[in-house]
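Structure request: Thiamine pyrophosphokinase, Maudiozyma saulgeensis.
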Amino acid sequence: MAEEQCIEREDRFDVDETIYKTFNIKNTINIWHDILNRTENQIADTILILNQRINLPFVVFKRLWETRSVHVCADGATNRLYEYLQEQQADNNNGNKDLREIYLPDFIVGDLDSITDDVKQYYFERGVVILEQHSQYAPDFTKCVKLILLNANSKEFNYLLQNNRQKENLGIDSDHGLLDMFDQLRQEHSKLPQRVDVLALGAIGGRFDQTINSITELYNARRDNPEMTLNFLTDTDIIMLVPKEGTSIEYNNDSTSNRIFRDHVLGNCGLLPIGEEVILTQTYGLKWDIINWPSSIRSGRVSSNNRFASRDKCYIQSDRDIVMNIEYYPDKLANYIEE
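Returned structure:
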């Protein structure tokens, strides 16, 4: 194996474009355009809300909601959305506008053992599609993923959505219906025709086993559903699975306020080898760049507390997919959106 290197960069530097052009860039991820301010919104792009308290500034929540077309709540997450909008109603002086009426989810999915009766009734009366799925072979997160992909790609599901609105559960079996429909969709299509971008809120936090399941969903999505891009947003972090091929992470927004976004909205970052050793072949643009660096939790060699040093982008290449977290400051993001 080639020699390991760790290179400490200046706090801010401009990338050498002659070097950057030599990299084997297979993927590009722009933190602003692709995640926080989805500017190329596709018809199936989705916000998925999971069962953790929502603490985002309302201006951030509003931007995320409005830049994605489909909105899904997983069971008890519906309570969280309802409560959050009630709180924002009181805090933001919205007058006669009932935020709960404005920000209605399109779907509520799960075994429905956590959603309260009054919240369920509220959304039922307003035409929200509520899909009860009792199967214990998949957590609610997975059921939601299947629903999102069916909604984007299944003619059968969309027929039921258009014609079975008056039927309980759209006429779908309440045990394994969504799972069976998705298996059938996969048999019909080796590659799904419609790509989907999903941003999940509330995936990390709370019970540790559910957090680990959420991380598992990142890997499952890449392996089983390559037509879907899945990212997480927490109160402190953007979390993604960086593909093993060379990836350019960009944090510019093509405006004069680019440096404000990078310097004031974004904080530290980490490359996290969860579950297996990852060889970080090369990074370029971080405060501490590494070359041919074996990284694993067991060995204690983890690139945490790193940060972006390049002014607008960095390059990451590894022999396996690797989880990346990027710290951000919600209040500063809210100010940035409002400017």
